[in-house]
Design a protein that fits this description.
By secondary structure, this protein is α+β, with helices and mostly antiparallel strands. It contains 4 helices and 5 strands. The model has no long low-confidence stretch (mean pLDDT 79).
């Protein structure tokens, strides 16, 4: 029985849309994803160094020594959701992303959702990395 999520989802933890997306992904994967914010201590440390200059441009899925960003991350994300739904028992110790630190009223809305969706479609990257401990 798997007790710790093995795949990491890295997201913009200062954006309310991105935080809602990460929360939904973690819930649908039934605890298989471990959320890490771009601006969290862990996200600003080893992950940002490993991902390089493109780290903040998109969300990332880190699994098995490979980081998938943006459009390339959709396939591993859907794979983790499917595994969580059909194969894995619910992880009772799963971590949910905290609320975003965004207090701005202009942070969310239709324009921002369209901009984030366009960014997801336009950006795509796959990198081999050493997973931080």
């Amino acid at each position: 029985m798997e007790t710790e999520p093995r795949t990491v989802i890295i997201y913009d933890n200062l954006c309310s849309l991105c935080t809602a997306f990460a929360r939904c992904a973690c819930m649908l994967s039934r605890g298989r994803l471990r959320p890490v914010g771009h601006y969290s201590q862990e996200g600003e440390g080893a992950y940002r160094d490993a991902l390089g200059a493109d780290a903040l441009k998109m969300f990332w899925i880190v699994s098995g020594g490979t980081a998938f960003g943006g459009r390339a991350a959709l396939r591993p994300l859907l794979s983790e959701i499917a595994r969580g739904a059909y194969r894995a028992p619910r992880n009772r110790d799963a971590v949910e992303p905290p609320d975003s630190g965004c207090g701005k009223s202009g942070c969310s809305g239709p324009k921002k959702a369209i901009a984030r969706s366009a960014s997801l479609i336009l950006n795509s990257k796959r990198i081999r990395i050493r997973i931080p401990k």
